[in-house]
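Whiteboard transcription, Tuesday session. T.W. wrote the structure tokens on the left side:
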């Protein structure tokens, strides 16, 4: 199990980017207008490099349409926010960033097509993809091309299986283990049921490590029922088995759409256990036609809570709301930290925009293991050569229709 660094409640932090660290959004920050191809025009005239037209080209991939669009749109928005902040402050060592985000619709084939589009655009670094299955497909291509690849939220083990790939979020195994530990150490329940998607690597991967750790935490898994992408609308059988087994808590390592259906069906059958999920539940409160009162008390493991009182989070949330009219979720925070991690790694390695993407990748493979950033999803975040982040997991609870830190 990877090492986690303890995180205390953040002390007051400046909003501007620190040298080698992820910085917070200033209150006045607002994204610049995008160009027709979805990229951001570089900030004007902050350096000789900018005057010469030199830029760092960072691409992004994720779903901005389709069932997982809430994740991809959050990543796109927050990455854009970070890029605009950095450009307004003079860029990376005086060189602005040009950002281009492509839609993959949470589809592996379309993600590869998006990657090829970004390659044709001369991308130098990739922030993506947002979801695990597309990320696993794309990492095969980035490895072949020796393209530096940082995923904000692709949590499957296979999504960063090569030395050119890193991630901001926790891996599926870490999420499953940490969830069991959190439930056990906080005495939330002793009898637990699990409903998971056996056709999805994210869901099944979390379930496997959760089940392996549950016994160590004094948890009894009294029911473990699967569904697939072809049977994700009726959960009455799974819920009835959990209820009959006396489960006090139902663990949902799944995405928010199916979770909203489960909560509605559990309510109709009069079953009122606690519900606990992982980052896939982030977005539950935005499901169309979902009665958010049914989500009251739902808990999820996440490294980010929008109501946290530290200045970095407060500045980011305000800037995001001002720019996009919405409260940022964990995926947004992951992406924001990801852009600042790329900045720190480029600065540490002394990378210049005239270098080839392959040479940049070779440099960043090393410098990513040498940086430490204070970000929204963790203080003192570091990365190992395996691409995994080191930071402490936290949990939030939905209270009065909003996420509240636990």
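and on the right, the sequence the group agreed on:
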């Amino acid at each position: 199990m990877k090492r986690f660094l303890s995180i205390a409640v953040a002390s007051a932090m400046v909003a501007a980017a620190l040298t080698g660290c992820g910085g917070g959004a200033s209150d006045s920050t607002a994204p610049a207008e995008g160009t027709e191809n979805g990229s951001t025009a570089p900030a004007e005239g902050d350096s000789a490099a900018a005057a010469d037209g030199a830029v760092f080209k960072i691409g992004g991939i994720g779903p901005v349409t389709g069932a997982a669009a809430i994740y991809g749109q959050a990543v796109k928005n927050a990455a854009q926010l970070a890029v605009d902040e950095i450009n307004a402050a003079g860029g990376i060592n005086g060189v602005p960033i040009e950002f281009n985000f492509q839609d993959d619709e949470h589809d592996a084939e379309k993600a590869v097509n998006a990657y090829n589009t970004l390659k044709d655009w001369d991308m130098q670094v990739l922030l993506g993809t947002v979801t695990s299955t597309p990320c696993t497909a794309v990492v095969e291509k980035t490895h072949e091309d020796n393209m530096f690849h940082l995923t904000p939220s692709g949590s499957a083990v296979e999504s960063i299986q090569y030395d050119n790939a890193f991630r901001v979020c926790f891996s599926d195994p870490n999420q499953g283990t940490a969830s069991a530990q959190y439930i056990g150490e906080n005495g939330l329940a002793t009898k637990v049921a699990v409903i998971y998607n056996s056709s999805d690597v994210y869901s099944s991967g979390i379930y496997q490590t959760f089940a392996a750790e549950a016994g160590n935490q004094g948890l009894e898994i009294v029911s473990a029922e699967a569904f697939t992408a072809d049977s994700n609308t009726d959960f009455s059988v799974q819920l009835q088995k959990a209820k009959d087994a006396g489960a006090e808590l139902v663990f949902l390592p799944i995405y928010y759409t199916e979770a909203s259906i489960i909560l509605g069906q559990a309510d109709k059958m009069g079953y009122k256990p606690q519900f606990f999920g992982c980052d896939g539940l982030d977005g539950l409160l935005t499901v169309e036609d979902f009665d958010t009162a049914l989500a009251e008390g739902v808990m999820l493991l996440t490294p980010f809570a929008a109501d946290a009182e530290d200045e970095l989070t407060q500045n980011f949330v305000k800037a995001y709301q001002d720019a996009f009219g919405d409260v940022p979720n964990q995926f947004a925070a992951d992406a924001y930290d990801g852009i600042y991690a790329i900045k720190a790694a480029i600065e540490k390695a002394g990378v210049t925009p005239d270098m080839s993407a392959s040479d940049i990748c070779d440099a960043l493979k090393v410098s990513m293991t040498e940086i430490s950033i204070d970000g929204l999803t963790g203080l003192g975040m570091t990365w190992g050569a395996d691409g995994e982040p080191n930071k402490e997991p936290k949990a939030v609870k939905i209270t009065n229709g909003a996420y509240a830190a636990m």
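Someone added at the bottom: Residues 149 and 375 are 19 Å apart (CA to CA).
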